[in-house]
Amino acid sequence: MKYSDENKPVIVYSGSATEAHLIRTYLESAGIRAFVQDEMSGILLPYTSSAGGIGSVKVLVAQKEVQQARQLVEEFLGR
Question: Whole-prediction pTM value?
């Protein structure tokens, strides 16, 4: 599937399935469309789902919303 540069999906979070879904909901409540990727591996192999780990679940947003989404993810995570 081809995407325009501004709609290209970009990972803004990688970690546990629980946090990924909470972050997706948080982003969508702020008007940012977000998607969860690799959910099943995070559920089946939760012990490997540390950030960037083999079983990590990812949250993706469109390139045009990356900056705002990353700020919201950092806010959500308390960083």
Answer: 0.79
